[in-house]
Amino acid sequence: MKSDKNSLPLCCDGIEEKNPRKDITSPLKNCLLMFTALIVWVLLYRQLLPFSNFLTYDIVRLSRESHLGASMEFFFYDTPKVLMLLTLVVYGVGIIRSFFTPEKTRAILAGRRESVGNVLAAMLGIVTPFCSCSAVPLFIGFVTAGVPLGVTFSFLISAPMVNEIALVLLYGLLGWKVAALYLVTGLVVAIVAGWVIGRLGMENHIEQWVRDLRAAGSEIPDIPLSWNDRLSRGWEAVRDIVGKVWIYVLAGIAVGAGIHGYVPEGALAAIMGKGAWWSVPLAVLLGVPMYSNAAGIVPVVHALLEKGAALGTVLAFMMSVIALSLPEMVILRKVLMPRLIGVFIAVVAAGIILVGYLFNIII
Amino acid sequence: MEIKVLGPGCAKCNEAEKIMTAATAEAGITASIEKISDFQQIAMHGVFSTPAVVIDGKIKCVGKVPSKDEALAWLKQ
Q1: Is residue B60 within 8 angstroms of chain A, CB to CB?
Q2: Which of A311, A314, A255, A259 is nearest to A282 (CA)?
């Protein structure tokens, strides 16, 4: 491909010379712009609490003791906070992701031994760009390239569950400890569940046509990216992800704000507290048919915790909602036979339930 | 010219198809544009991140919606 580089404008890039706009923004100018934006970001971020107070109690003139006042303050504080954090992190992750493509991830994982492969796959799941609609092509690509089945599953579990959106929201609303806990346990569930599925030796439960496919020698051009390209990938990610997700964030925060203002303190302790042993499996079971992305679920989780729900129960609920979804299972049915899908759901659900109990016991 | 847009039918894949249609019209090229959403066929092209654009059997772009400028550049080759 190297010889083509100078003569042919290749995939998705390499047309800088024809695009005068790109030439104007030099790397230096880009850096200055980024730096200024960062300072403005920090200044704004520090004003959020006084701003939400001012808006709720001085402009809208709600009483500080009222339910509505509490709800509104929660909403006016959390919404800009979460959206700002999200923008910053999605930008950063967008740049990091320009270094990782599914093709590279596949090349790293192909021919890996199982245990090491499971760990690598789960970690690569965080940084490799992934959308649930490419889950099936990705599955096929991995399996045909000789990535072991269990390792492929580690990736497929981790990619949607442990992502920057979930982590940012958990950090912003519940603090870094909960975010770190989620990151670590999410990875562990992905690694262990993938490993278990690999041990079960269910390769013959992949649909026949997938097994018959031989890795097509993919001649996908690998284009070297400049730093300018990578920085603009960051902005593209912000436009793309924040543009899509903000409505879920608003809806989630609105529900959370309602719970915050109206549900009495400790009301959920009886049904979602530590004492109720059945609440963890129930939360996981409820989470499977529900489908939401992290952006919608975390604000709700935040409000549930405030009202006496136990952390383990709530995290289990969140993992189940994000990681196990009916629409994804329906798509996976095209490549997996029912028994393998059943095993996949059972193993992941069991892992999540264990995580839930573990937290309810330790914390 | 034979253009194939590979993708199971998510929003991005439809966008990729629209861009290719617009680009061929702008370049004044007569080309057949085919949308392939069958997983088996996508896999046979050796592509596993979608959307992908294939022109005359050559993979031009994977896992990304191309910009119109990029699409025009491929068509003019």
Answers
A1: yes
A2: A314
Q: Best of A4, A8, A12 to disrupt the B interface by mutation (most B CBs within 10 Å)? A: A12
Helix H or strand E encompassing B35: strand B32-36
Please spell the DSSP secondary structure of A221-256, one letter per residue.
------HHHHHHHHHHHIIIIIHHHHHHHHHHHHHH
Model confidence over A168-206: pLDDT tens digits? 888 888 889 889 999 999 999 999 999 999 999 888 898
Which residues in chain B touch residue A216, judged by CB atoms under 8 angstroms apart?
43-46
Flag whether A20 is in a domain.
no
| Residues of chain B contacting residue A241, judged by C-beta atoms under 8 Å apart | none
User: Nearest-CA distance from A145 to chain B in Å?
Assistant: 10
Q: Does B35 touch chain A (CB under 8 A)?
A: no
pLDDT in tens, A109-158: 887 888 899 999 999 988 887 766 678 888 888 888 888 999 999 999 99
Altogether, the residues listed in chain A come to a count of 363
Cβ partners under 8 Å of residue A81, min gap 6: A45, A48, A172
Please tell me the distance from the alpha carbon of residue A204 to that of residue B67, in angstroms, as a whole number: 41
- Judge contact between B54 and B63, C-beta under 8 A: no
What is the domain count for chain A? Answer: 1
Q: Which domains does chain B have, with CATH numbers?
A: 2-76 (3.40.30.10)
